[in-house]
């Protein structure tokens, strides 16, 4: 097989012009092969992203008899004075602020629990992963039932506390609605990141752990000085992916609460969909999308920078 | 055994107990859903106070399922989602592996830049441009072929294609194929070229047949979001005939009919995915794990 390499170079060189012709043909074929994907990405990714920027400064509506006009920063000025939007930004941040550390931490805990060989390794991994293969819509519907005033969760609370504590009407109480969605979201997503952490754990050379255990260091020290530093790349990835998906919170809200009660669960994407789709205000929704886009970008860059500098 | 009956075992027992508790925690809502789908509503509520809520006991029947099929065209929704997922997977594998092949195994100017740009797009979530995309697909033209007459139509709303085409080209799939193709020796291409094979032949006869694991990964990672897709069809599909399962269940849920029936519908669209997952566990887990390598 290795003999083939010099053979090709020689045969091309002796025939002079063939090399550049072959090169050109290779380039054209490559372009042809890449073009379906590039074209689709152009139409369904690049253009809509550019449109998000463009439409945000116009008066575009989804279906409108009059063509869109340029309106400058009007949409953003409206956003700044829209209390529901501001509340949604706040909710989105609150959601991410809790979900990111809790889900990443729980997932890491799960990964450590099922890392290595013991009876039923595979069984436990599989069970922890079940919520991930269950669609978020289904999860939201089932949990809506669990969260009802006379639902399963309150019955369990009732039973455990012997009737001393009355559980709230989780989703219809503005003080518990977001927390309820947070809890469920962590439940659904932890298994996914457990797998990512596990993959990371497996990249840490076993010799390091062996060396540490020969030296007789405690489990915690071993985690702190062997495992944790070994998970650097995984950490960045886990944090960024959870943050982005937390910022994109929509399905749970749309199925369970429609942003209520009293906008306590309204989010950025929920507002974008409400104004852009239900009210057909494409331009306003694009402005929200743009804010969302910039936020995601800033947070990812900051996280990348932070996790890099620490090490 | 006796050699181990030391502090090591004493420490292992609580760890094992923790694993079991967590397993119950992650499984109970799904078990509850499956079990409740077989019970009449009165019994679902009656069983809530006891462990019977999680057990298939009492008067069990498939009546809830029958009622779902009576009330909504659930079969139609299932077929829609099945078709949309299948076509997205097949086209996705083709389009993305072709692009990855060109990017990883052929030499041409701009390929490095293109790969960098494609990877950079991974950070942009769909939700940031979904709304401009709704506006955009509403403006897109399409050639309607009717026998021998071809007419130009405008707007992609309420079609199957609007549920498929935006998700065919996928930066992450291209990246995965690219990584995988890198691991296949390039000498194979050289040898084939000398034997007179074209680049497309190399792709089809050499590289693709060796790429089973990458194809499986891309298929799984395309299937899950396609089957679960919700936000997008919610906005671009009004016609009940074209509705996928997740939007279908959301409307069904809003009808407020009966919890047993809602759980039946939910089970119906979850069990096939769970079954696939249990059958191809290793591939599923590996696919998810491979999505972590991009960090």
UniProtKB/TrEMBL annotation, chain A:
GO biological process: transmembrane transport
InterPro entries: ABC_transporter_permease (IPR051393), MetI-like (IPR000515), MetI-like_sf (IPR035906)
Gene Ontology CC terms, in alphabetical order: plasma membrane
Topology term for the membrane: Multi-pass membrane protein
Keywords noted in UniProt: Cell membrane, Membrane, Transmembrane, Transmembrane helix, Transport
Pfam families: BPD_transp_1 (PF00528)
ABC transmembrane type-1 domain span: 89-303
Record localization: Cell membrane
Coiled coil: none
Annotated transmembrane regions: 33-57, 93-114, 126-146, 178-199, 237-255, 283-302
Family annotation (Gene3D superfamilies): MetI-like (1.10.3720.10)
Listed CDD domains: TM_PBP2
Family recorded in the similarity comment: Belongs to the binding-protein-dependent transport system permease family.
Name of the protein: Carbohydrate ABC transporter membrane protein 1 (CUT1 family)
Originating organism: Saccharothrix carnea
UniProtKB/TrEMBL annotation, chain B:
Residues annotated as domain ABC transmembrane type-1: 78-280
Membrane topology note: Multi-pass membrane protein
Gene Ontology terms describing biological process: transmembrane transport
Main location: membrane
Record InterPro entries: MetI-like, MetI-like_sf
Any one Gene Ontology cellular component term annotated for this protein: plasma membrane
Database matches in PROSITE patterns: ABC_TM1
Compartments (UniProt record): Cell membrane
Keyword hit for Plastid: no
UniProt keyword terms in alphabetical order: Cell membrane, Membrane, Transmembrane, Transmembrane helix, Transport
Positions of transmembrane segments: 16-35, 77-101, 113-137, 160-177, 206-227, 262-280
Coiled coil: none
Family note: Belongs to the binding-protein-dependent transport system permease family.
Protein name: Carbohydrate ABC transporter membrane protein 2 (CUT1 family)
């Amino acid at each position: 097989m290795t003999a083939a390499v010099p053979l090709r170079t020689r045969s091309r060189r002796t025939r002079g012009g063939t090399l550049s012709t072959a090169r050109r043909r290779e380039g054209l074929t490559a372009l042809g092969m890449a073009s379906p994907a590039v074209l689709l990405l152009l139409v369904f990714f690049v253009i809509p992203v550019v449109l998000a920027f463009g439409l945000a400064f116009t008066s575009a509506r989804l279906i409108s008899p009059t063509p869109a006009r340029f309106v400058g920063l009007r949409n953003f000025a409206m956003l700044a004075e829209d209390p529901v939007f501001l509340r949604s930004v706040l909710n989105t941040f609150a959601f991410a602020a809790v979900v990111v550390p809790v889900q990443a931490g729980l997932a890491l805990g799960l990964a450590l629990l099922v890392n290595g060989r013991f009876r039923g390794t595979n069984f436990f991994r599989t069970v922890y992963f079940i919520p991930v293969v269950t669609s978020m819509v289904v999860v939201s519907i089932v949990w809506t039932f669990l969260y009802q005033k006379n639902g399963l969760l309150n019955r369990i609370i009732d039973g455990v506390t012997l009737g001393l504590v009355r559980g709230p009407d989780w989703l219809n109480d503005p003080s518990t609605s977001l927390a309820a969605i947070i809890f469920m979201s962590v439940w659904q997503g932890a298994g996914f990141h457990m797998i990512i952490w596990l993959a990371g754990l497996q990249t840490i050379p076993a010799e390091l752990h062996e060396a540490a255990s020969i030296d007789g260091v405690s489990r915690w020290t071993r985690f702190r000085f062997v495992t944790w530093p070994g998970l650097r790349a995984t950490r960045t990835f886990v944090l960024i992916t959870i943050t982005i998906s937390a910022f994109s919170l929509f399905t749970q809200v749309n199925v369970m609460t429609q942003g209520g009660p009293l906008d306590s669960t309204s989010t950025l994407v929920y507002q974008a969909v409400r104004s852009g789709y239900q009210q057909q205000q494409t331009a306003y929704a694009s402005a929200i999308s743009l804010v969302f886009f910039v936020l995601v970008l800033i947070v990812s860059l900051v996280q990348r920078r932070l996790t890099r500098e620490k090490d | 055994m006796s050699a181990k009956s030391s502090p090591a075992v004493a420490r292992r027992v609580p760890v094992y107990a923790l694993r079991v508790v967590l397993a119950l925690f992650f499984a109970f809502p799904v078990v509850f859903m499956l079990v409740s789908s077989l019970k009449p509503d009165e019994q679902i509520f009656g069983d809530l106070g006891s462990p019977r809520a999680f057990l298939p006991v009492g008067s069990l029947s498939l009546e809830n399922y029958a009622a779902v099929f009576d009330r909504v065209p659930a079969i139609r929704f299932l077929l829609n989602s099945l078709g949309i997922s299948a076509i997205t997977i097949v086209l996705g594998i083709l389009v993305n592996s072709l692009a990855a092949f060109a990017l990883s195994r052929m030499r041409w100017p701009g390929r490095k830049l293109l790969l960098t740009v494609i990877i950079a797009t991974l950070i942009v979530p769909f939700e940031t441009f979904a709304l401009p995309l709704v506006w955009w697909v509403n403006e897109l033209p399409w050639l309607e072929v009717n026998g021998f007459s071809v007419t130009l139509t405008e707007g992609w709303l309420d079609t199957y294609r609007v549920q498929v085409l935006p998700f065919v080209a996928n930066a992450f799939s291209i990246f995965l194929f690219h990584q995988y193709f890198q691991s296949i020796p390039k000498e194979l291409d050289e040898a084939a070229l000398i034997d007179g094979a074209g680049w497309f032949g190399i792709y089809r006869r050499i590289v693709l047949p060796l790429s089973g694991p990458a194809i499986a990964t891309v298929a799984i990672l395309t299937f899950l979001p396609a089957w679960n897709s919700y936000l997008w069809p919610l906005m671009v599909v009004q016609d009940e005939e074209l509705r996928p399962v997740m939007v279908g269940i959301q409307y069904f849920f809003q009808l407020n009919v009966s919890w047993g029936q809602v759980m039946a519908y939910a089970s119906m669209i979850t069990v096939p995915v769970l079954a696939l997952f249990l059958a191809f566990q290793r591939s599923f887990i590996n696919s998810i794990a491979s999505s972590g390598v991009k960090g």
